[in-house]
């Protein structure tokens, strides 16, 4: 049913068909909000690529596909410190729910503690995010539970109507728009230390608390994010993030981040929080943020830092 082949580098011959797969998946998954993979994504050194082809099958409904040897899925493994492999995976929309992922894993296995790491990629642990606790990802995790697949982290997407915003407590720590490279660098460092698994988009506005580069909090807001929700298009808030033991600025950072979204005429704000980050969850819920979606991180082997990139699409 399938053929597959690992690459340490993608070749020019691979690119047209892979580009078609990624673009068709991106278009299909756009409304659902799945993250998208691209050929020009920034990738860590030592990234491995697995290409999966569906063999010609006259039983397929589509005559063209029935006679073709077509690229059906793509898996990317990026090495991280500690021997962890960060997995991203996408299946061509026409071939979802056909058992391709199950068959692939049955063929390649999940043996990690072998020479050269998993499938020669050099990694000895795997982790992957399933957006929206995707049922296909859950089915795969249950099917291969005996291989050590476990749930290690949960993140929640929270939504809030942007209309009458709460007043900022005059005694709360002051929050301002970042104005210097030192502030932006310190905020980026806070984001990384906090485990932010997403890249902050270019053009996002940054607000900070604290003196100079000694920040006590940071939050980014992207009115142009264009996230689709049942309540309309949402702007996106990234954070807030604060150093350990410095929760005083959280509420003010969140309220401040909501203001540019209201000023842009948006009706909804969106943010993603670690479900275990109680101070941020607490303040967000007090302000009126509502739970919209749960993202689940699965791992095999040693877990290490539990935050990474999300699984782009259905894995069944």
Q: Topology of this protein?
A:
Layout: E1 2-7, H1 15-29, E2 48-54, H2 63-66, E3 70-80, E4 84-91, H3 100-108, E5 125-130, H4 135-143, E6 150-161, E7 175-177, H5 181-193, E8 205-211, E9 214-229, E10 232-241, H6 250-263, E11 268-274, H7 278-287, E12 290-300, E13 310-311
Parallel strand pairs: 4-5, 5-13, 10-11
Antiparallel strand pairs: 1-2, 2-3, 3-4, 5-12, 6-11, 6-12, 7-8, 8-9, 9-10
Helix pairs in contact: 6-7
Quick recap:
With 316 residues, the chain is of the alpha+beta class. It contains 7 helices and 13 strands.
Report what the structure shows.
This protein has 316 residues and is an alpha+beta fold. The chain folds into 2 domains: 2-148 and 301-311, 3-Layer(aba) Sandwich (Aminopeptidase), CATH 3.40.630; 156-294, Aminopeptidase. The protein is 23% helix and 34% strand. It has 7 helices and 13 strands. Strands 1, 2, 3, 4, 5, 6, 7, 8, 9, 10, 11, 12 and 13 form a 13-stranded mixed sheet that branches. β3 and β4 form a beta hairpin. The longest helix is centred in the N-terminal third of the chain and has 15 residues, at 15-29. The chain is elongated. The protein starts with a strand and ends in a 5-residue tail after the last strand.
């Amino acid at each position: 049913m399938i053929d597959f082949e690992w690459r340490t580098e993608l070749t020019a011959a691979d690119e047209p068909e892979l580009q078609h797969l990624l673009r068709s998946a991106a278009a299909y998954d756009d409304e659902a909000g799945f993250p998208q993979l691209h050929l020009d994504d920034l990738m860590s050194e030592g990234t491995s690529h697995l290409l999966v082809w569906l063999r010609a099958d006259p039983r397929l409904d589509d005559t063209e596909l029935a006679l073709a040897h077509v690229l059906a899925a793509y898996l990317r493994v990026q090495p991280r410190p500690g021997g962890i492999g960060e997995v991203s995976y996408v299946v061509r929309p026409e071939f979802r729910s056909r058992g391709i992922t199950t068959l692939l894993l049955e063929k390649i296995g999940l043996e990690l503690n072998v020479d050269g790491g998993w499938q020669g990629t050099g990694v000895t642990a795997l982790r992957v995010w399933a957006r929206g606790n995707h049922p296909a990802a859950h089915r795969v995790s249950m099917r291969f539970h005996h291989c050590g697949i476990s749930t290690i982290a949960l993140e929640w997407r929270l939504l809030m109507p942007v209309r009458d915003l709460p007043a900022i407590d005059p005694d709360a720590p002051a929050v301002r728009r970042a104005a210097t490279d030192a502030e932006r660098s310190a905020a980026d460092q806070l984001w990384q230390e906090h485990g932010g698994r997403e890249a902050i988009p270019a053009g996002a506005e940054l607000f900070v608390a604290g003196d100079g580069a000694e920040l006590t909090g940071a939050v980014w807001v992207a009115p142009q994010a264009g996230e689709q929700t049942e309540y309309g298009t949402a702007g996106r808030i990234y954070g807030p993030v604060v150093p350990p033991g410095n929760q005083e600025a959280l509420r003010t950072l969140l309220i401040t981040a909501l203001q540019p979204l209201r000023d842009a005429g948006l009706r909804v704000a969106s943010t993603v929080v670690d479900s275990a980050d109680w101070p941020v969850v607490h303040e967000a819920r007090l302000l009126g943020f509502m739970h919209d979606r749960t993202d689940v991180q699965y791992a095999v082997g040693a877990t290490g830092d539990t935050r990474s990139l999300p699984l782009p699409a259905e894995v069944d």
